[in-house]
Amino acid sequence: MSNIQVLATERQIRQAVRRIAREVSRRYQEESILLVGVLTGAFVFMADLARELYRMGMTDVEIEFIDISSYSGTESGQIRFDRDLTVPISGRHVVIVEDIIDTGATLAFLLKLLEVREPASLIVVALFNKVTRRVETLPSERIITGIDLPNKFVVGYGLDRNGKFRHLPFVGIVAS
Ligand code: 5GP
Ligand code: MG
Question: Which fold has domain 11-151?
Answer without folding.
Answer: Rossmann fold (3.40.50)
